[in-house]
Amino acid sequence: MIFPEYRARRLRQNETFRALVRETSISPAHLVYPLFVMPGKGVREEVPSMPGVFRISIDQLAKEAKECMGLGVNSVILFGLPDKKDSKGSGAHAKDGIIQRAIKELKNTAPGLTVCTDVCLCEYTSHGHCGIMINDVVDNDTTLEVLARTALSHAQAGADMVAPSDMMDGRVAEIRGILDENNFHMIPIMSYAVKYASAFYGPFRDAAECAPQHGDRKSYQMDPANVREALREATMDVEEGADILMVKPAMAYLDVISRLRDEFDLPIAAYHVSGEYAMIKAAAANGWIDGEKVMHESLLGIRRAGADIIITYFAKDMARLLNG
Ligand code: PBG
User: Fold this and answer.
1) Is residue 9 part of a domain?
2) Coil, helix or strand for 268?
3) Is 204 in the pocket of ligand 1 (CB under 6 A)?
4) Is residue 6 part of a domain?
5) Over residues 68-89, mean pLDDT
6) Domain range for 102
7) What is the average pLDDT value for the chain, to the nearest integer?
8) Which of the four pLDDT bands, split at 50, 70 and 90, describes residue 1?
9) Which of 66, 100, 113, 198 is positioned for an S-S bond with 157, CB 3.0–4.6 A?
10) Is 248 an annotated catalytic residue?
11) How many independent structural domains does the chain possess?
């Protein structure tokens, strides 16, 4: 079909036609909202590089959960700022750790909310790396056991899903193993299967105080130049028992999301990360872009690329727009 027999504009002439033929949709059900939990009482502290995102204390969680659920955002992912850090990241699996207490609080006050947890050590280690250091190197196999204990402690506190983000090899199998041994075979693993060593995490590292004190994360997170390697990472996690595969960041990696969508039949999640949020907010605050429209278009693009689930700091704003 070619012009003038075919006119692409026929089905664009009004919103009803456009809505009838729209290929991609977003609903609040697809969105996961990240929460930063910190010690103290009555704390609600805006992250300077992430306007509209707050670090909150445990007593503020019920209110936050109610707000999310009222908007139809029924899943959150938790990040914790512990009281103390040490070289082994012990706070990550402490029975009364910040995340473990936060999970309990949410389960008590908002039982309908699905609580996912980020399983990683960087927020809990004094050196800020995502694993245990031996001779200045993040030691893969020593870290596995600590990650598994962390995931188990989250499940024991009542988490609904665990999301390992450390990028150690073999962590999914290790976590699946310990969960199954302890009768948590119904807890899914959303694996950060394809996580790049990205500069887009900058604002998050301010929010979670987890920037590496020396060096960078390139020896464990992926090289942004690679996509075939992403398929190998994802294959590994599928074989180890992942339930959901995540790509992170999102917008600079839409091709990776799309490749994973084509090659795997598991649900795909995309993490629209802190830097992506901060850039949109900053440009909008300057009046350079329409922040709401750019938010919508960005999330739509991530869905169109093939993501089922989007983890985004815009979850509440987007839900408000959709519910509008
Ligand atoms: C922990 C973790 C990070 C993010 C999620 N989990 C930081 C990092 O790897 O440096 C980044 C999320 C964001 O930027 O929004 N490892």
Assistant:
1) no
2) strand
3) yes
4) no
5) 97
6) 25-323
7) 97
8) confident
9) 100
10) yes
11) 1
